[in-house]
């Protein structure tokens, strides 16, 4: 497979103004007739060939302006069809046959549980019909769907239904018109035996919109939260960005088999059932919040992605980074803002930092790719969102909103670039953002080394910052970035933020300094007392910032910092210092001793309490093993696990009365609701229970068992079951697991939780359980949710067992990747990620991991897996 390069972009030679499609649905042989209204692009010469993409299609007829083409007039290949000498303006009619039944890759048109559905982003439409399958070709669509009336009573596509009727042989049809020009990746079709839940929304200009969520009958009771989330998101986008919905109908469909979370097809969003269905008995608080966020994300794409789309796939972050930023702000506004930021950053620093430090590191706007499906990454989405967040903070919200209005107005109905977006922000704010653009082109996580000195005699504080971005594949040298650092100086006597004067002027209200050089010193004057600096408040830039904090400094910030995010971060840094010592002790075979200053800091935290219980729960949560690993030069899997377990047990032993009190204070029998208050209370209670179970005293075990038996809501049941299954009490865990598995055997999404609980257990039998559970009737390699729950969770979240020194964990993952390479390349390429990080581990593990990567390389590979494996072994 050959790479595509960003610099090779050329506008298409031909445009499609309007697309008419007709689908005759049959599982093994669906006929797709397409009529494209084509014209030459005004910027391109006459007489160029028309190149259409197409894969796995059987062409049965082709005509231009009603005249069948002779074989010499076009050329067919595995990747497309070329019309050699087309006229300037014409109608192209084609007919192809495709087989949804055999489509296990879940791209294009496929069958999920007897229901037809599509996934066209990024390049799935070419598996439906011959077409210029690129985002800068935008057309209006008219789609007729024909199917068997008894088995496929519901026939959906984008836009508005304009005609329906009966046909011979028990078939029927519906025709849909989508008046908004769109690229092929936003096309969607759904057909099946579905039921709908309906609601309405009146837009800010008074238009009435019908909202529908389509599900299989058994899932009818699980749509309330998604519908409420959708209405909240529609209102938020009007109030915050002035964006109104534009069609009369907005539909969501839930499907079982789906490669990602959801898809923003115009007027017809398709969702993974896991990203839309909720019920207090089947979904946890985390799922309720995830559903709210994803429903909002897909809805927000209607403007940031659909009305204004990407010129080419290198610009993917234009829509994804901006839309993630929008959904993060929405979730922060409707829930607890500090907790949302803490959760997002904790995830980002673990997973995106790892991606940026590994062999698949790439810029937010990549320069080349082999398979675009591999670039739906944490860098494009999450780092892209951090870049937009920095832009927003740099220019300020008012200018950002003006820039956003300008962007939507200027480019409505167009396919544009990241420069177009940033130019609007520069125009609206008057700021020069040229250095800032490096954030889009340079891969890797910038590292900032900071140190500070207080000069008593002159009442000055000198802060020196040095930035460096490590080399990444293809990019050995890096330039200095423009890095906004929000900060404060917290007086050690007063415990308060000191007023900041820099270069004789008060620092702006937000307290942002701008690092632009490789090294810069900032001299703050009139500093009346010795301060502790609080740096990178709110994680104001996606960087690793190091400062030689002492433990007392961190305990001080944990107690006094006015920035909630940095209070949490001080606790994490303090725990990391203790963990580092314990990791070293474990490695050197020295007895582990718990740092009393960490215990005292936690005790003080527990005594102080917090109004926001969710924040308190985050403060009490230790850094994850994955995050700890990210902070180590070389990952010592056993030492990290042992050190973290030791800290948890030491805190539990020293503070068990406090944890017990916390647990009791936060128990509640009131009916479940996914409100921020209830979620915070449950998190705090369950964090306390985790600590208590870390030492497994009889009382803790009894509480966990009672919580499981009480069966109040899935959040509590799942947490209690996890603690039992991860404890040494198999006498209680086994019957509980059995009961849970039997009760929920008919609910695939709950069985996913049942799989995940078992395969994350630290006991040495975890790997054997994975192999055993792969034979369970509820498991299927063809369903991405099942694969993620069982195999993905094991490889990513059970570090000591996945990295077993006998290499069995790696072998298991490789076996699955090889199988999936054939069935579903997109999922295979994602699943292999943990093996690609081999350089982070000790020599024997490196050899084992590389051996497995070589084993994959020896197979006949899909472009997706090929690209990842080649990078990993480069
Ligand atoms: N824009 C959507 C991306 C997506 C996708 C990409 C590749 C393969 C399958 C996919 N399903 C959805 C989702 C989003 O970002 O909103
Ligand atoms: Zn998106």
Automatic annotation (TrEMBL):
The keyword Metal-binding applies. One of its GO terms (biological process) is proteolysis. Its EC number is 3.4.11.2. Keywords: Aminopeptidase, Hydrolase, Metal-binding, Metalloprotease, Protease, Zinc. It catalyses: Release of an N-terminal amino acid, Xaa-|-Yaa- from a peptide, amide or arylamide. Xaa is preferably Ala, but may be most amino acids including Pro (slow action). When a terminal hydrophobic residue is followed by a prolyl residue, the two may be released as an intact Xaa-Pro dipeptide. Residues 226-437 form the Peptidase M1 membrane alanine aminopeptidase domain. InterPro entries: Aminopeptidase_N-like_N (IPR045357), Aminopeptidase_N-like_N_sf (IPR042097), PepN_Ig-like_sf (IPR038438), Peptidase_M1 (IPR001930), Peptidase_M1_dom (IPR014782), Peptidase_M1_pepN (IPR012779), Peptidase_M1_pepN_C (IPR024601), Peptidase_M1_pepN_C_sf (IPR037144). Belongs to the peptidase M1 family. Aminopeptidase N is involved in the degradation of intracellular peptides generated by protein breakdown during normal growth as well as in response to nutrient starvation. This is Aminopeptidase N. It comes from Billgrantia pellis.
């Amino acid at each position: 497979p050959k790479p595509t390069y960003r610099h090779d972009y050329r506008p298409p030679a031909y445009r499609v103004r309007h697309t008419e499609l007709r689908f005759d649905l049959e599982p093994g042989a669906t006929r797709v007739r397409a009529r494209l209204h084509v014209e030459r692009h005004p910027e391109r010469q006459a007489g160029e060939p028309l190149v259409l993409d197409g894969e796995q299609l059987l062409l049965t007829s082709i005509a231009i302006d009603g005249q069948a083409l002779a074989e010499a007039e076009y050329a067919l290949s595995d990747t497309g069809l070329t019309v050699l000498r087309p006229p300037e303006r014409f109608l192209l009619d084609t007919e192809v046959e495709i087989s949804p039944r055999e489509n296990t890759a879940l791209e294009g048109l496929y069958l999920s549980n007897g229901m037809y559905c599509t996934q066209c982003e990024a390049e799935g439409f070419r598996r439906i019909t011959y077409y210029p399958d690129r985002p800068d070709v935008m057309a209006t669509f008219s789609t007729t769907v024909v199917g068997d009336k008894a088995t496929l009573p519901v026939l959906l596509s984008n836009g508005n239904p304009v005609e329906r009727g009966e046909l011979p042989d028990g078939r029927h049809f519906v025709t849909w018109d989508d008046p908004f020009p769109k690229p092929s990746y936003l096309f969607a079709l759904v057909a099946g035996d579905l039921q709908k839940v309906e609601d309405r929304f009146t837009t800010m200009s008074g238009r009435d919109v019908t909202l529908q969520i389509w599900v299989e009958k058994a899932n009818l009771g699980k749509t309330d939260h998604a519908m409420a989330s959708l209405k909240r998101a529609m209102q938020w986008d009007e109030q915050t960005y002035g964006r109104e919905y534009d069609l009369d109908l907005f539909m969501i469909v839930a499907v079982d088999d789906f490669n990602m979370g959801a898809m923003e097809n115009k007027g017809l969003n398709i969702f993974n059932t896991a990203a839309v269905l909720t019920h207090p008995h089947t979904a946890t608080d985390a799922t309720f919040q995830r559903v709210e966020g994803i429903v909002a994300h897909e809805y927000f794409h209607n403007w940031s992605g659909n009305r204004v789309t990407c010129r080419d796939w290198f610009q993917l972050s234009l829509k994804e980074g901006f839309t993630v930023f929008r959904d993060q702000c929405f979730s922060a506004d409707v829930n607890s803002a500090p907790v949302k930021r803490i959760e997002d950053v904790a995830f980002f620093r673990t997973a995106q930092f790892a991606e940026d430090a590994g062999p698949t590191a790439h810029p937010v706007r990549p320069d080349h790719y082999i398979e675009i499906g591999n670039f739906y990454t944490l860098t494009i989405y999450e780092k892209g969102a951090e870049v937009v967040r920095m832009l927003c903070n740099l220019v300020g919200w008012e200018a950002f909103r003006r820039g956003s209005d300008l962007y939507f107005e200027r480019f409505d109905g167009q396919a544009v670039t990241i420069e177009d977006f940033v130019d609007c922000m520069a125009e609206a704010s008057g700021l020069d953002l040229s250095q800032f653009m490096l954030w889009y082109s340079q891969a890797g996580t910038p590292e900032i080394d900071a140190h500070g000195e207080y000069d008593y005699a002159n009442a000055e504080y000198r802060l020196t910052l040095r930035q460096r971005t490590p080399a990444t594949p293809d990019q050995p040298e890096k330039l200095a970035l423009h890095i906004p650092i929000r900060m404060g100086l917290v007086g050690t006597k007063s415990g308060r933020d000191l007023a900041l004067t820099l270069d004789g002027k008060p620092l702006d209200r937000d307290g942002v300094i701008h690092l632009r050089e490789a090294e810069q010193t900032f001299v703050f004057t009139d500093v009346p007392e010795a301060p502790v600096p609080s740096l990178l408040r709110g994680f104001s830039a996606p960087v690793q910032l190091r400062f030689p904090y002492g433990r007392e400094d961190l305990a001080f910030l944990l107690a006094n910092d006015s920035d909630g995010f940095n209070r949490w971060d001080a606790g994490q840094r303090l725990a990391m210092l203790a963990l580092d010592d314990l990791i070293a002790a474990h490695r050197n075979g020295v007895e582990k001793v718990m740092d009393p200053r960490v215990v005292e800091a936690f005790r003080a935290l527990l005594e102080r309490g917090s109004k926001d219980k969710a924040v308190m729960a985050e403060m009490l949560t230790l850094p994850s093993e994955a995050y700890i690993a990210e902070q180590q030069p070389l990952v010592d899997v056993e030492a990290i696990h042992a050190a973290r377990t030791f800290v948890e047990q030491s805190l539990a032993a020293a503070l068990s009365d406090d944890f017990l009190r916390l647990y009791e204070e936060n128990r509640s029998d009131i009916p479940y609701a996914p409100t921020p208050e209830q979620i915070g209370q449950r998190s705090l209670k369950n964090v306390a229970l985790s600590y208590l179970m870390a030492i497994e005293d009889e009382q803790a075990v009894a509480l966990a068992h009672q919580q499981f038996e009480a069966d109040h809501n899935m959040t509590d049941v799942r947490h209690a079951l996890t603690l039992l299954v991860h404890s040494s009490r198999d006498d209680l865990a086994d019957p509980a697991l059995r009961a849970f598995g039997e009760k929920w055997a008919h609910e695939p999404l709950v069985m996913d939780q049942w799989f995940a609980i078992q395969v994350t257990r630290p006991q040495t039998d975890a790997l054997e359980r994975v192999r055993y559970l792969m034979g369970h009737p509820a498991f299927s390699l063809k369903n991405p949710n099942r694969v993620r729950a069982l195999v993905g969770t094991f490889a990513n979240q059970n570090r000591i067992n996945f990295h077993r020194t006998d290499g069995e964990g790696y072998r298991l993952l490789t076996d699955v990747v090889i199988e999936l390479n054939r069935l579903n390349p997109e999922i295979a390429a994602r699943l292999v990620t943990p093996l690609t990080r081999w350089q982070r581990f000790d020599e024997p593990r490196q050899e084992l991991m590389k051996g497995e990567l070589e084993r994959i390389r020896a197979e006949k590979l899909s472009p997706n897996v090929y690209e990842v494996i080649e990078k990993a072994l480069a």
